[in-house]
Design brief:
Hexokinase, domain 1; six-stranded mixed beta sheet; five-stranded mixed beta sheet; 15 helices; globular; binds adenosine-5'-diphosphate
Length: about 450
C-alpha cells in the first residue's frame, strides 16, 4: 500500500483540476457575459454558444391576472395536461399525467401531436371542460426560435425525443393541425413557453422581483428579463423581453476548454451528443454521477482507493447515480451509510475509502454549484448594468431535482454568487409546479394585453 502522504499527493493531483479558484470562476463569468452579448446581437448571434432566444414574454405577472386556462407540459420527465384557475387570492390547478410511449416519442410528428390532442380531449372530458373554450399555454421545453408568443419553430429535439417532421416546424401549428384532424375545433393556443420561463413566471406571481428563471434538473438552463434595446434579434426598443439563454450549450464553441478535465472529456464522449451541451455536462443531474464514477475509476487505477482492487461494476455507465451524491454528502451521515451505498455497487470499501468517496462527491457538486453561480453572476451583473443601478435586488425562480434535493448545492450556489456579484442581492425562490402554472400565467398575461 502507498504511504499516507503519497496517497494524499495522488488524490490532490487527481482532484486539483476540478477545484476552481476565484479567478477561474471570474473568467467563466466574463466568458458567459461575452457569449450573452454575442448571442443578443443580430450580426453576432451565430458565433455565440448561448443562443439567447427571444421568448416574446414582455412582462412578469402583476397580480391582476384572472381566469381559467389549459396548460400542457411537454419536455420534462412526464407529459401533463392541466387546468389552472387564477383567482384574486389563489391559483388552483388540477392535472393529469399521460404516458407517451417511446414508439410515439420517436415516431412521426403527426402521431405525436395527434396523441397530445387525444390526451387534451380525454382531460377535458374528465374535467367536464368540453363545452368551454379556454386559452391554452404550452410549456414546450426544447430549443425553439420564437417568432411570436404563439409561434415557435423547433430548432432541435433533446432529451431522447426524436419525432420526425418537427424540426424546422412551428410547434403551435403542428398542434393546431392535429386538433383539426381530431375534430377538436375549440382549441385556442395562445402561448408557447420554455420551462425556465414558466418557472420565472410562476415565482413571479408570488414575488414581483422574480425576473430570472433557473433549472437544475436533468439539464440546466436559465432565462431573464433583458432590455429590448439590447435584443438585436427582435424589432423594437421599448420595454423588456424574457430571453431563454439555452445556457447548457455554453462552451460548445471551445471557450470553456480550459475548464474541462479528462473526466469531463470521458463523460462527454459517452453521451448521445458529444461536444454539445458542455456547460450542462459539468452541472446537471444527468452527468454528476458519471463524473464521480470516472474519478473513482482513476483512483482505483492509481491504487489510492479500494486498495487498487478492480471494480468491474464501476465500469457500467450511469451506475453511480447523482442521487447518491445527495445522500453521501448529507452532513453527519454515518460513514456506515456511505459504506452501504458502496456495498450495493459491489465496492468493498474501508472507512478511509468512504471518506475519500465523500470528498470526490463534494468536489464534483461544489464545482457544479460554483459554475452555475458564475453563469448567474454574469446574468445579474448584466441586469444591474442595464438598469444603471449601484445595487440590484432580484429574485431567481428555481426548479429541478438536483437543486431541490442536494444538501449543499443551493447554499454553495448562493455563497459563490455573492462573492462573484457583490453588488447584487439575489434571493432564490423554489417554484412549485412551475411549468404548468407558468404556462397558464403567460397565457393570462397575453390575454390581459390582448
Ligand atoms: P427534469 O429536469 O427532466 O424536469 P428533474 O428536475 O426531476 O427532471 O431532474 C431529474 C434529475 O435529477 C436526474 O438527472 C437525476 O439524476 C437527478 N436526481 C434525482 N434525485 C436526485 C437527488 N436526490 N439528488 C440529486 N439529484 C437527483
Amino acid at each position: 500500500a502507498l504511504r499516507l502522504a503519497d496517497q494524499r499527493r495522488e488524490v490532490d493531483q487527481l482532484l486539483s483540476p476540478l477545484r476552481l479558484s476565484r479567478s477561474d470562476l471570474q473568467r467563466v463569468q466574463a466568458l458567459m457575459r461575452q457569449e450573452m452579448d454575442l448571442g443578443l446581437g443580430k450580426e453576432t448571434n451565430a458565433r455565440s454558444s448561448v443562443r439567447m432566444l427571444p421568448t416574446y414574454v414582455r412582462a412578469t405577472p402583476d397580480g391582476t391576472e384572472r381566469g381559467e386556462f389549459l396548460a400542457l407540459d411537454l419536455g420534462g420527465t412526464n407529459f401533463r395536461v392541466l387546468v389552472v384557475r387564477v383567482a384574486e387570492d389563489s391559483i388552483r390547478m388540477a392535472s393529469e399525467i399521460y404516458v407517451i410511449p417511446t414508439s410515439i416519442i420517436q415516431g412521426t410528428g403527426v402521431e405525436l401531436f395527434n396523441h397530445i390532442v387525444e390526451c387534451i380531449m380525454d382531460f377535458q372530458l374528465k374535467q367536464d371542460l368540453m363545452e368551454q373554450i379556454l386559452p391554452l399555454g404550452f410549456t414546450f421545453s426544447f430549443p425553439c426560435q420564437q417568432l411570436g408568443l404563439d409561434k415557435a419553430v423547433l430548432l432541435s429535439w433533446t432529451k431522447g425525443f426524436n419525432a420526425s417532421g418537427c424540426v424546422g416546424q412551428d410547434v403551435v401549428q403542428l398542434l393546431r393541425d392535429a386538433a383539426l384532424r381530431k375534430q377538436h375545433f375549440t382549441l385556442k393556443v395562445v402561448a408557447v413557453v420554455n420551462d425556465t420561463v414558466g418557472t420565472m413566471m410562476s415565482c413571479g406571481y408570488d414575488d414581483p422581483k422574480c425576473e430570472i428563471g433557473l433549472i437544475v434538473g436533468t439539464g440546466t438552463n436559465a432565462c431573464y428579463m433583458e432590455e429590448m434595446r439590447n435584443v438585436g434579434t427582435v424589432e423594437g426598443n421599448e420595454g423588456r423581453m424574457c430571453i431563454n439563454m439555452e445556457w447548457g450549450a455554453f462552451g460548445d464553441n471551445g471557450c470553456l476548454d480550459h475548464i474541462f478535465t479528462n473526466f469531463d472529456q470521458m463523460v462527454d464522449e459517452k453521451t448521445i451528443n458529444p461536444g454539445k451541451q458542455r456547460f450542462e455536462k459539468l452541472i446537471s443531474g444527468m452527468y454528476l454521477g458519471e463524473i464521480v464514477r470516472y474519478i473513482l475509476l482513476a483512483m482505483v487505477e492509481k491504487r489510492v482507493l479500494f486498495r487498487g482492487k478492480p471494480c468491474p461494476k464501476l465500469q457500467t455507465k450511469d451506475i453511480f447515480q447523482t442521487k447518491f451524491l445527495s445522500t453521501i454528502e448529507i452532513d453527519g451521515l454515518a460513514l456506515k451509510k456511505v459504506l452501504a451505498i458502496l456495498r450495493d455497487l459491489d465496492l468493498h470499501a474501508s472507512f478511509e475509502d468512504s471518506v475519500l468517496v465523500r470528498e470526490v462527491c463534494q468536489t464534483v457538486s461544489l464545482r457544479a454549484a460554483q459554475l452555475c453561480a458564475a453563469g448567474m453572476a454574469a446574468v445579474v451583473e448584466k441586469m444591474r448594468e442595464n438598469r444603471g443601478l449601484d445595487q440590484l435586488i432580484v429574485t431567481v425562480g428555481v426548479d429541478g431535482t438536483l437543486y431541490k434535493m442536494h444538501p449543499h448545492f443551493s447554499q454553495n450556489l448562493q455563497q459563490t454568487l455573492q462573492v462573484l456579484a457583490p453588488k447584487c442581492s439575489v434571493t432564490f425562490l423554489q417554484s412549485e409546479d412551475g411549468s404548468g402554472k407558468g404556462a397558464a400565467l403567460v397565457a393570462a398575461v397575453a390575454c390581459r394585453k390582448a
